[in-house]
Write a structure and sequence with these properties.
- The structure is a single chain.
- The chain is α/β, with parallel strands linked by helices.
- The protein contains 22 helices and 20 strands.
- Helix 8 (182-189) crosses helix 9 (191-212).
- Bound molecules: ligand C2E and magnesium ion (MG) (2 copies).
- Residues 343, 402, 434, 464 line the site of one magnesium ion.
Length: 559
């Protein structure tokens, strides 16, 4: 850019005159010498060498059409097809009229007819062509991203809106493409490699837009927007395009996420189309495989609903709309089942949506980094409930609370739980902590450290949903845990499916090996209870005994 500006100030501009006739070269050169640096070439091949070598220094090429080796037309064609050489303006020297049209079609900026006539006219045409080209380069550079050559976002939206206006708002599809985990790609393979990935993405997208019409931009570091005239076959085209891209990015494997909005007439403008494409993109996980999703009205409704829940959360916490329910756990070792503890499970009694189960909001809160607020609330409520029951009935019912996989990363987790214990005057073994098995497999080192520290403080930690998270046996033996809670799906068919029954037996053996009790969750029938008892399961939780209930209803179990 700086070089361009210097040139604009008239510091140095270089012109290449290409003509096989010595006299013609000299005449033209003399007209321009005082104002420019002038170089000469006597045939097309020599000219091409010079142009390739000095492509950034040349301000203009003046080209004769009839030359040996490589003629002017062929040279024009070569220049025009090369994105780096295309920006150098070419004035063609012509004698006959047809040649003018043909050379303009091949991308020439202007022409000068032989014989030359007055020098002032030649000089003016030269000056004019150079300035026009320089201005357009400056515009091009401010509009476009240097690395990929695609538009910057602001210009993209501006031109997109113009395009819509010009086409009477014809239907347009919007595609958002993200390079997954791009910061890691940069870190692992270096910035240069990262740049190369973006550049290749830019090239592919450029090619796609050239073929199908429309516009594209790089919206931010690793994200691209494509705006194209609506086509009914885009659904089939996307997988093909992905296959092509996968070939380009096979080694090392780069994966993408594509969110697509197909115009169905329900969007008012370009921005809205891209909001929707972005939304479908965001809903995809950053997996190692390239994935894509099309926008749907259902997705839109879910997103709106989730947005409401997120907006309402703080008010709901303050207004105690969240209710902690308790589900009893029974020890079945003796003749009579004996209440041994409870699990605290949250429900949201929403003023507009009614009773909402945790399945609808826990992972949403986890994703948005809000789960710690809710969990802290539940832990406090549960601790205070333990204390109330103790004061009222003189017995301690230990209550287990769920600890989100996200909480595990909170360095103040242990301090906070200690505080809750202390504030409510209960002891560590009264508040049991449940952590789902998949948290162990996802971030094993972190979880081992956290759980060891919690146990060091005196807490007891139960592994929730055991059997669903693919722990290896090897890993299990090194895990610090105090109980295994069998995942519900194994219990469901335990009485009808021999394999499931055998699996549960194996898991009970594993618990024995680890010297921890096993808790079966989701037990609904008498047969399941008896079978579990016969194969050595000690503790049972499930609808057979009770659904999760509010604290006052739970009191009937204590009595
Ligand atoms: P979870 O911790 O594995 O809880 C057991 C789930 O099984 C509960 O669902 C419970 O109502 C249900 N359940 C219990 N017995 C039976 C049965 O016999 N049959 C059937 N079909 N289901 C049974 P719920 O309350 O909807 O909770 C779902 C999940 O939400 C929980 O799974 C837990 O992962 C999460 N969750 C609940 N409360 C909290 C909380 O306060 N904090 C966090 N972080 N997660 C929570
Ligand atoms: Mg649980
Ligand atoms: Mg569970």
């Amino acid at each position: 850019m700086q070089e361009l500006l210097n040139r604009k100030k008239g510091l140095h501009r270089r012109i290449l005159i290409v003509d096989d006739e010595f006299i013609e070269r000299e005449m033209l050169g003399n007209m321009l010498k005082g104002m420019y640096e002038v170089e000469y070439a006597e045939d097309g091949e020599a000219a091409l060498d010079n142009i390739k070598r000095d492509k950034y220094k040349l301000s203009l090429i003046i080209l004769d059409l009839h030359m040996p080796k490589l003629d002017g037309y062929s040279l024009l064609e070569i220049l025009h097809s090369d994105p780096e050489l295309r920006r150098i303006p070419v004035i063609v020297l012509t004698v006959e009229k047809e040649a003018e049209v043909k050379s303009l079609q091949l991308g020439a900026a202007d022409f000068i007819t032989k014989p030359y006539g007055v020098p002032e006219v030649v000089q003016a045409r030269v000056m004019h062509s150079i300035e026009l080209a320089e201005n357009s380069v400056i515009i091009h550079e401010t509009e476009r991203d240097e690395l990929t050559g695609l538009f910057h976002k602001e210009f993209f939206f501006e031109y997109g809106r113009k395009l819509d206006e010009q086409n009477d708002n014809a239907p347009m599809d919007a595609v958002v493409i993200d390079v997954n985990r791009f910061h890691i790609v940069n870190e692992l393979y270096g910035r240069e490699f990262g740049d190369m990935v973006l550049k290749k993405m830019g090239e592919s997208i450029h090619g796609f837009v050239n073929e199908n019409g429309g516009l594209a931009c790089r919206s931010d570091s690793n994200c691209f927007y494509v705006y194209i005239p609506h086509r009914t076959d885009l659904k089939e085209m996307i997988p093909q395009q992905i296959e092509e891209l996968d070939k380009v990015f096979a080694e090392p494997r780069i994966s993408l996420r594509l969110g697509v909005y197909l115009d169905d007439g329900s969007c008012a403008d370009m921005e809205q189309r891209f909001d929707r494409a972005r939304l479908s993109c965001r809903r995809l996980s950053e997996s190692y495989e390239t994935g894509y999703a099309f926008y749907s009205a259902k997705l839109h409704d879910t997103e709106l609903y989730n947005e409401h829940l997120l907006q309402d959360m703080d008010k709901a916490l303050a207004g105690k709309q969240f209710k902690v329910y308790y589900q009893p756990k029974y020890n079945i070792e003796g003749d009579q089942p004996r209440l041994c503890s409870a699990e605290a499970l949250i429900r949201w009694v929403h003023p507009a949506h009614g009773m909402i189960s945790p399945g609808e909001f826990i992972s949403l809160f986890e994703e948005k980094g809000l789960i710690h607020k809710l969990d802290r609330y539940v832990w406090n409520e549960a601790a205070s409930q333990i204390r109330k029951w103790r004061d009222k009935y003189g017995v301690t019912i230990p209550v287990s609370v769920n600890v989100s996989r996200v909480d595990v990363f909170d360095p103040l987790l242990g301090d906070m739980l200690d505080r809750i214990i202390k504030d409510n005057g209960i002891s560590h073994e009264d508040l049991l902590l449940e952590i789902t098995e998949s948290a162990y497999t996802d971030s094993s080192q972190q979880i081992i450290e956290t759980v060891s520290a919690l146990r060091g403080r005196g807490f007891r930690v139960e592994m929730d949903d055991f059997g669903s998270g693919y722990s290896s046996l090897n890993m299990l033996t090194s895990l610090p845990i105090d109980a295994l809670k069998l995942d519900m799906k194994f219990i469901r068919n335990i009485c009808v499916n021999k394999k499931d029954c055998a699996l549960v037996e194996i898991m009970i053996k594993i618990a024995d090996l680890l010297e921890v009790p096993i808790i079966a969750e989701g037990v609904e029938t008498k047969e399941q209870v008896e079978l579990l008892k016969s194969i050595g399961c000690e503790i049972i939780q499930g609808y057979y005994f009770s659904k999760p209930v509010p604290s006052d209803e739970f009191e009937s179990f204590i009595k």
